């Protein structure tokens, strides 16, 4: 590596450290300053100063402490400049770090507070996701807009409105009490899971950036689990995301086309993530034997797939049983459909079709139509299968998945049989 | 501390009529229980007693009055409380104890300090 490359690589590493630390420092600044905008501006200033001075002076021994102190000074300056009122001045003075400041040690608590504030039920769901990306993942407004496929002006307004509501309605910056925690944790989990799916199923928009959403969601799930290590929902969410994420390299082919679970090259699954997730599922389920957490249950199903050495060795009996458990804690048509598909794998296409047809309310849902088509083809009912594929294709909004259905329809016509979903 | 208005949306009826005495008593209970955070409030007569006032053509123009707010919804503003709470979670927990929360709906809005 040549010298300029070394410097460039060194600089890139420095930028990463500064950004990473800055993101963590923001949570503390929001708590001490109480004003999101001022806190964000102050951290941005501090990050800028670090990037300007650290290459000359070297990285300080405690970069995080340096950033916190600098950001607080920037916040005081900002408050002085923007509000010259005596009252604000007094509150600005209190921001100066007292001797023996413990902020560096409380950073995890601050991050957790930030997670719960971003996912407060009084904030509209779309804004929760945007706020989480903006403040917890450190994405710029423009990046958030591109990632969530919304115009930048709309996104900017949405984030501003949410921040104003937090300030004006005094949405608290705290971790909910123990009795509220299960409900509120479900809200956090839903936001993180939404974020993951946005990234995971991304086939439109800026693909690399949307792929990053899945990474960020895994990071958030890990953060929530680190902070609440004994909560089954936190364990289940992290395990579920790790298991789905472990297949990221195998789930599309070189041409970017989706590859069915059964056809995936399992050597390309991320073993380390699978091992970690399976351990989480085991530990989590022991914590809630009477009423398994829905995320843990879904993770248990994903673990059955992850542990099968090949598609033929999948333990469909166990998967159907886990779906039975899931239906006791989260009963919805999509969950019923997935169970019906598993029955088709366990008991054959005839039983599968019967089970799929018994699921009501999904007449226009592309995966339901596709499941029927696949089962009809396996039963050798070629004409019915062809009709069903046509209906599934016209209901599917995603271009890549539509193309996949067309391929499967061709295969069904050619061989009179198709691989299961 | 933040001041919130808990705006009560409920059936457009005469809450002072004897047949609503039981429901009014529920409000009395709430008032006693939440006395620590209640800073004011009022119950309103039905919209049939309301008068809408507008000044046409800007300040100093003609005063135009009309009857009622022409409510077309089932639930209308029938009263409010002023609550002083430490944060939104406390305000929401308090509002959830107002009888209208299960008979109708309660809207919690922060009050602009003047």
TrEMBL record, chain A:
<keyword id="KW-0731">Sigma factor</keyword>
<dbReference type="InterPro" id="IPR013324">
    <property type="entry name" value="RNA_pol_sigma_r3/r4-like"/>
</dbReference>
<comment type="similarity">
    <text>Belongs to the sigma-70 factor family. ECF subfamily.</text>
</comment>
<dbReference type="InterPro" id="IPR013249">
    <property type="entry name" value="RNA_pol_sigma70_r4_t2"/>
</dbReference>
<keyword id="KW-0805">Transcription regulation</keyword>
<dbReference type="InterPro" id="IPR014767">
    <property type="entry name" value="DAD_dom"/>
</dbReference>
<feature type="domain" description="DAD">
    <location>
        <begin position="383"/>
        <end position="413"/>
    </location>
</feature>
<keyword id="KW-0804">Transcription</keyword>
<dbReference type="InterPro" id="IPR046531">
    <property type="entry name" value="DUF6596"/>
</dbReference>
<dbReference type="Pfam" id="PF20239">
    <property type="entry name" value="DUF6596"/>
</dbReference>
<dbReference type="Pfam" id="PF08281">
    <property type="entry name" value="Sigma70_r4_2"/>
</dbReference>
<protein>
    <submittedName>
        <fullName>Sigma-70 family RNA polymerase sigma factor</fullName>
    </submittedName>
</protein>
<dbReference type="InterPro" id="IPR013325">
    <property type="entry name" value="RNA_pol_sigma_r2"/>
</dbReference>
<dbReference type="Pfam" id="PF04542">
    <property type="entry name" value="Sigma70_r2"/>
</dbReference>
<dbReference type="InterPro" id="IPR007627">
    <property type="entry name" value="RNA_pol_sigma70_r2"/>
</dbReference>
UniProtKB/TrEMBL annotation, chain B:
<feature type="domain" description="YCII-related">
    <location>
        <begin position="19"/>
        <end position="114"/>
    </location>
</feature>
<dbReference type="Pfam" id="PF03795">
    <property type="entry name" value="YCII"/>
</dbReference>
<dbReference type="InterPro" id="IPR005545">
    <property type="entry name" value="YCII"/>
</dbReference>
<dbReference type="InterPro" id="IPR011008">
    <property type="entry name" value="Dimeric_a/b-barrel"/>
</dbReference>
<protein>
    <submittedName>
        <fullName>YciI family protein</fullName>
    </submittedName>
</protein>
<comment type="similarity">
    <text>Belongs to the YciI family.</text>
</comment>
